[in-house]
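Notes on consecutive records. When two proteins share a document, each keeps its own sequence and its own token line. Never mix them. Below: protein one.
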Amino acid sequence: MTDHPKRTESGLERLQAELAALKLDSIRQRLALLETQVPQIVADARRFLVLEHVPPWETVLLFPEGELASLTDRYDFDFLRRRPDPQQVAPATDLFFEAIELLYELPRDEQDAPVKPAPVEH
């Protein structure tokens, strides 16, 4: 691989950091939108992550009990080894999964806190 002469190691590291910051801003904005539109779904997604620590497609649980059973009934899902296609689940279930995925991608210390909308540049 030939390196571009203007691309130093520190320049590449800055680019990586900028990309990571943009991704995190996007996650925060999407989650903020969900929280304003469907706060109960986001609250349920947070509760799911508190109980399980990972998305439902990253664990296998044959007989959920208690709150987990309530959430699986409410959103009509099983613990699969992959996230179902949005076309194959009800809209509320897809939004529940989206909220779980976004929350899971946030840094751990932000997962439980209400999401503040990131500034939108025009």
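Protein two starts on the next line and is unrelated to protein one.
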Amino acid sequence: MRTARHIITEHSWRTRLSLLSGLLLLCSIGLYWKHISIESSELKQQIAALVLLLGLWLVLHICPRFGLFSNPEANALANRGRRFLLISIYFPVLSAAFCVLSYLAISLHFPCIDQELAAADRLIGFDWKAYYDWVTKNNNLALIMLFAYKSIAWQQFPVILVSGFFSPVERLNEFIGLVIVSSLIVIVMVSLFPAQGAFFYYHQSNALGRIWVSDFLSIWNGRMPVIDLSRLQGLVTMPSFHTCIAIFYIYALRDHRWLMWPALILNCLMILATPVYGGHYLLDVLAGLLLSIGLIVLSSPAKIRFGTEQGRINCT
């Protein structure tokens, strides 16, 4: 019987590509069913970047056949390079597929749960408007949090680079698996429990972050005939996917203290910024923390979860 760790972290490339193919097929069916087309003003640049990465991968894949990288150290480095390039190709396509699926999930038009989320925040004692005003009125703090919030896009590159070249292979597998499984759970959650977000609920029409969720009402009401891949928005409210990814970034770098501590600070700021720039309720953030930490616990070796020597992984 496969353990939760195996399900989350131990995927072959055949499994990953099969999953991606299934997601793209599901996107195609959903787009056809909803009569939605896709476009991208940056499609040529995006394809060119992927082709370039694929070309570099082919070079590293073919070179050993001509006697290059015969040195064990060089061969190991080439293997890590190939793995890094494959992930660099795979991740953007996977992310785009999940974003399109989030749009399609919201288009199912299930009732929004904003009132319930706002009520839960009040029950906890969290005043969203007061927190929003406090951050945005402090210009320096607002700029720092905006930088942290937007770092979700570029942080993936150093995390994949470090995990691919300077960490045991298990670290990269963990990161990929955690992102995939959490994304699947988030898609199911957003389809059943969509929410417009705090910007709309509290009528913050001047909120900077509102432009990043402006597609919600259009897709939810069935008035969005085209999805632009060059400006996909994060429409997931509960659980907060920014929060999940922030925790996964920190966890992926845990073997490198010189990177983990800056990552810890930056990603804690990202989490604190999600209500302000992502329009999230506090409950969204707490749900994201619960989901990400829960998946990490399930994916961890038994020796970490239970303090035993069971499940030790050979990282040599």
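For the record: The mean pLDDT is 80.
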